[in-house]
Amino acid sequence: xxxxxxPNVWVCLRLPSDSLKxxxxxxxxxxxxxxxxxxxxxxxIERPYNLTYELLDRKPGHKDSELRIVxxxxxxxxxxxxxxxxxxxxxxxxxxxxxxGGDGVEFQLVGENGEVIMRSNRETIDDSARQTLTMEEIExxxxxxxxxxxxLIAKLMASHLGLxxxxxxxxxxxxxxxxxxxxxxxxxxxxxxxxLTTWMMEEKDASKILELREEMLALIGSWSxxxxxxxxxxTGTGDGRWLVVDETGGLLAAALAERMGILYxxxxxxxxxxxxxxxxxxxxxPLATSNTITLIHNNxxxxxxxxxxxxxxxxxxxTSPTHPLSTHLHPLSWLQLLHPENDTVYSTPIEPVSxxxxxxxxxxxxxxxxxxxxxxxxxxxxxxxxxxxxxSGLVIASHMDPVSILRHTIPLLRGGxxxxxxxxxxxxxxxxxxIYSTSRRTAxxxxxxxxxxxxxxxxxRSQWQGDDDFPLNPTLLLNTSVQSARIRxxxxxxxxxxxxxxxxxxxxxxxxxxxxxxxxxxKVEARGKFARKKTEVKSAxxxxxxxxxxxxxxxxxxxxxxxxxxxxxxxxxxxxxxAFENAVKEDGSGVEVQMS
Amino acid sequence: xxxxxxxxxxxxxxxxxxxxxxxxxxxxxxxxxxLKEHDEDDxxxxxxxxxxxxxxxxxxxxLIGLPWGSQVRASKVDTGSRGRRVKGQDKKRKREESVPEGxxxxxxxxxxxxxxxxxxxxxxxxxxxxxxxGFIHLLPPTPENWTSSLPHRTQVVYTPDYSYxxxxxxxxPGTQIIEAGAGSGSFTHASxxxxxxxxxxxxxxNGSATKKRKLGKVWSFEFHEQRHxxxxxxxxxxxxxGIVQITxxxxxxxxxxxxxxxxxAESIFLDLPAPWxxxxxxxxxxxxxxxxxxxxxxxxxxxxxxxxxxxxxTPVHICTFSPCIEQVQRTISVLRKLGWVDIQMVELSQKRxxxxxxxxxxxNGTERGLQLTPASVDEALxxxxxxxxxxxxxxxNGEKVESNKKDKVNPNNREKIMESxxxxxxxxxxxxxxxxxxxxxxxxxxxxxxxxxxxxxxEDERKAREKWEVEMRVEDEVKVxxxxxVKMNKKARKKAAAEARKAAAAGVKAExxxxxxxxxxxxx
Lengths: 596, 524
Hints:
Chain A: Belongs to the TRM6/GCD10 family. Chain A: This is tRNA (adenine(58)-N(1))-methyltransferase non-catalytic subunit TRM6. The structure holds 2 protein chains of 2 kinds. Chain A is of the alpha+beta class. Chain A is 33% helix and 19% strand. In chain A, helix 4 (150-158) packs across helix 5 (168-182) and helix 6 (193-202) runs antiparallel to helix 8 (251-260). Mean pLDDT of chain A is 77; it is low at 91-130, 272-279 and 529-596. Among the domains of chain A are: 75-177, no CATH class; 525-596, no CATH class. Chain B is an alpha/beta fold. Chain B folds into 4 domains: 20-141, no CATH class; 144-202 and 213-347, 3-Layer(aba) Sandwich (Rossmann fold); 353-436, no CATH class; 475-523, no CATH class. Chain B has helices at 79-98, 105-122, 143-149, 159-168, 186-195, 225-237, 251-254, 275-278, 289-292, 325-337, 377-397, 414-422, 458-467, 475-481, 485-507, 516-523; strands spanning 20-26, 29-34, 50-53, 56-59, 71-76, 129-139, 176-180, 217-222, 244-248, 267-270, 316-322, 341-360, 370-371, 431-436, 446-452. In chain B, the strands form 3 sheets. In chain B, strands 7, 8, 9, 10, 11, 12, 13, 14 and 15 form a 9-stranded mixed beta sheet that branches. In chain B, helix 3 (143-149) packs antiparallel against helix 5 (186-195) and helix 4 (159-168) runs parallel beside helix 5 (186-195). The radius of gyration of chain B is 36 Å and the shape is extended. Mean pLDDT of chain B is 78; it is low at 83-123, 204-210, 477-488 and 506-524. At the A-B interface, helix 1, helix 2, helix 3, helix 7 and helix 8 of A face strand 1, strand 2, strand 3, strand 5 and helix 1 of B. Strand 16 of chain A pairs antiparallel with strand 12 (341-360) of chain B.
């Protein structure tokens, strides 16, 4: 997918300091990397991604540098040399020889007299060079800038008075530190969702994306079961429609779109457009009915600013009509969802105009007419299809109270739909989980509120808006769970393997997951294990087999601890009792019981 | 073939026969079941095929055609007599088979089969009757609930791990994924979902899609024969044929080509005991001997042409999954020698949380789920006062306070609990707290990630340079463009400084000048 850097795409440059910089590669322009130098953009266009380049020394009279691809062997030379040295200790006893630098700089530390001998094929530095360089001298070296900073680093190390006191490891660390500061290299990386997430977290304002780390983003994608699901033959069932509430500037939508295969336009999609007049008349391709994201936003326009890195701009539909998102991303506001009649665009039909009158319009007016018509039709289609429900999943990353979102969105989900709600802090999810606690659900089943009972049809009941005791109908979600994940990065170097010393703090990030279910009509009795009274249950017909006998069911071993046939009569009262007792107890002691 | 879509990818609105569905009993207890109209295995139930659970029995006929997510009541099924007897016979027969009896083995088997099949051929599958209690929920399969319910064959790659791995190795619709060490198949299912972009033969059938879509595929390898067979059957049963191709092979020995063809992989996941032995096969061109170590099977043999299993036009992302740090070190060492870049190692920790209400207080006696300590100083004080009062009364008047134990009713019988739930609304009492669940997976494996960029030859570079001509900005040019006075001065100053430096450089030979040609001369 990301094979070559195409002109005008956004790419990410990783500098030696590990900072990331996102730039647009415009042909015939200059890319400036600040203190590291600058180079013409044409030098990286249609070159592969993931390569590391070195800015060569500027030729006399030139303002910008040429680039050189640094082969992987050179990048790893230091470490490989170190490894080899560790494998074949050929030094004499008491001598600690460490090679730090496949770029030819080799250190030989002699413990006895504390003298440092350095050998290099690039330059030799005599004893008089064992001086600390002054600020001016360093500045001058930087200006000279030979060997992409490698000379400078070598000199800095040579001039370090305390070098002989350093251990091998601190020496390596010192070199790394200087490398990060002075080496003139960069790596070119594609801007995709993982990269964008890292960039937002580390370089930009992490709170703008709700501090959504990569691992949490990946977890959201899995638990919401978002995947490519364009129907082979459009059966009208509309499989694979996801409902999304995204307040991360489009990052969540981008991550889901990436999983659905609708984020990256193929190069042919970005071919130049027809003339403007033509595009007015050109009917938009119909909105997709499967493999879609329906995005509910709180402002008049959705904030999807991060999608610009994927060549999609939702505010200017004419700029990207062939982008897959323009047919698969369906934005609508809460107003359009809950009170469409109050929304002007939705509720004002566009008067049809006869072709003759249309011809008489000036080009500008005709354009406006087409634009209005398209906008109205689009919103009408989106709102109507959203209200029809049947969504395969719901994904939320929002500042809003999840309870208020779920109240309006659960009825739109079909049975078996997956729900994934991300929150930077756990408190909103704790409150939400409590609404689905076992005891609250039991209470709801035992005596549903009158406002709920007065509703007759299952449809009406699924729309029930909740009350004080039951803010949401607790029987509509199954398997509610809250989890979190975090990665820990390690440094793996010969003899120096350990987790990295510092990491970003901030919000931990939590994920609430659940499955939408369809409760059976009427009362349903739970059946549970009732250890205390089980021994008293005597066989009704005398041939009861011992409980807890393992039965094999479809390859899986299942414990059959209640024999329905023989115990059925006795069970009803007793296990109900057990179930409720245990249901309450279950919270604390984890006793095995079915949750109703 | 194309008509049999996978329930993992297209669940449809209702459950249907011959497709996998998940019978959900309770949290972390789910039974995957392929729904059958009729009992082909002949387990002897009058209702046809039946799922037996601790919460009751569920004939498949009551589960087919239901909207997903439906709550289903248990049915009255006679598991006692017929069900068990047949099972017993099964076991007995197996035992007999294992005895090497030679001549009378064949007739005996026939006898048994006849015995077992007679009752079912005559038997009508009866109507089911709902039981008074017990229920399950019927859910569509997803890689997540499959992972938590699949039959374990090896250590399973769990959801947090595979989510992150697939995200990092850029597994997206249309990707060719190599998975080596399929194991229990949880990663196989998750990666199939990630790579899926249509069934073979479906390209362009969807009216609007005129352009050909690249179809993603999972190239799976498993060296254990039984596991391979089981996974092969699962893939068929789950309708994932054409999306997952599983090969029985030890990739460290045999490499990754399938029928001599390259899978053209873009994303690779290695869950092997020694991933470094498989790495030399995953090169763009024949790897150097030095990088392969002592592995005799590494592809350094010059007699056969080397075919790379990788896609030559995209960068390749890899992840290896190893529990031990020593494995990681060896893997990374080989990755470095083979030219992989951006090597990173991480571990992932996951926690699930228990959320409940903590009720503290002495007011309600011995009710369950209640921490029996005073909730506040006031409550403690009131209690102390009460005790003090009782003592006083006893010592002064010799009065024994009558125990009011008899008045106390067991607060844990059903009526009381229902009352506390419905009337007192105990579900709203207490403080809402969260804590990590009792058991935490503190270590699954270390994840090593790396990227292999596209090979870029000098010829490629020359072509690119021809197409995208580079015009270097020259200092003078700039001077003409924005020749402001200040700038000029600065330039002049810089130039002077450079000249001074040059003079100095001439003295110190080692430092070289800022003229690259000069450096080169010195080096040669």
